[in-house]
Amino acid sequence: xxxxxxxxxxxxxxxxxxxxxxxxxxxxxxxxxxxxxxxxxxxxxxxxxxxxxxxxxxxxxxxxxxxxxxxxxxxxxxxxxxxxxxxxxxxxxxxxxxxxxxxxxxxxxxxxxxxxxxxxxxxxxxxxxxxxxxxxxxxxxxxxxxxxxxxxxxxxxxxxxxxxxxxxxxxxxxxxxxxxxxxxxxxxxxxxxxxxxxxxxxxxxxxxxxxxxxxxxxxxxxxxxxxxxxxxxxxxxxxxxxxxxxxxxxxxxxxxxxxxxxxxxxxxxxxxxxxxxxxxxxxxxxxxxxxxxxxxxxxxxxxxxxxxxxxxxxxxxxxxxxxxxxxxxxxxxxxxxxxxxxxx
Length: 344
Ligand code: N2P
Description:
By secondary structure, this protein is an alpha/beta fold. It folds into 2 domains: 5-126 and 252-305, D-Maltodextrin-Binding Protein, domain 2; 128-250 and 312-342, Periplasmic binding protein-like II (D-Maltodextrin-Binding Protein, domain 2), CATH 3.40.190.10. 38% of the residues lie in helices and 17% in strands. It contains 13 helices and 12 strands. The radius of gyration is 22 Å and the shape is globular. The model has no long low-confidence stretch (mean pLDDT 95). The site of pentane-1,5-diamine has 8 residues, from strand 10.
């Protein structure tokens, strides 16, 4: 009789691979979007080491994941309009929701949206708005109530614009009365032309850490994401966040698992960890953005819950628009963004 040994070893090695607990988790997230404390606590509790790196735009994240064909990362955090694109391109894998015991904490109004019906591929992480930050020490707040005010020739070389294609072109569209999700070529050209006229006022494009530039005093006003402005405001109350009257843009970023991810067990554990009320509470408090986790919001001190920078009122969201995928118009956005940034 032939020895059963090789078969036995094969089986053993298969079993160890199949059931070995993950030792690492590779996370790729927006900059300044997850407190170190949360990573440390996760590692302490699970023994899983988190390899963490960051990006400052959806486009940078997408390019990386696409080049790697969905391999290399276990968890990334795209905005809704990239969840849509990535899932349609086969770059994401389904999340096993039976492994998520804390899913019920999420605001049901943010679930089951057209970009990912049934949330098969994405679990909301944080959401927020894009408005205007000003330093009231040097800028009169009465004079800045609209996106249009940023074109004032008095602000020569003073503005920060987010280094973010959809945000900047969205502002150009909005100021002309169009939708931030326009797919109309003429409207996009008009937005681009309008934006070329703001360039003399632009000091810097930044999406990595705008607050550092607001706080150091290098820029007195410009665009900002609400959470970033929130932290700046906590450090220096003179820095304020304004909801421009044309309307802010709104977005939601979600945790997704790329198609080639290797550490699936760890990824699911991490998602469920983030969904715990106490952990989601730490995240919203420390990074300043808005939590989709209702149980976490309940735990927040009143002061945080009533802070309009992170938790806007209905009035603040008047004329607000949620950013969605622009489908076939994306190359038009890319063309004008490139032209705006490089002048060609
Ligand atoms: C934080 C990035 C905010 C996310 N640095 C914008 N979707």
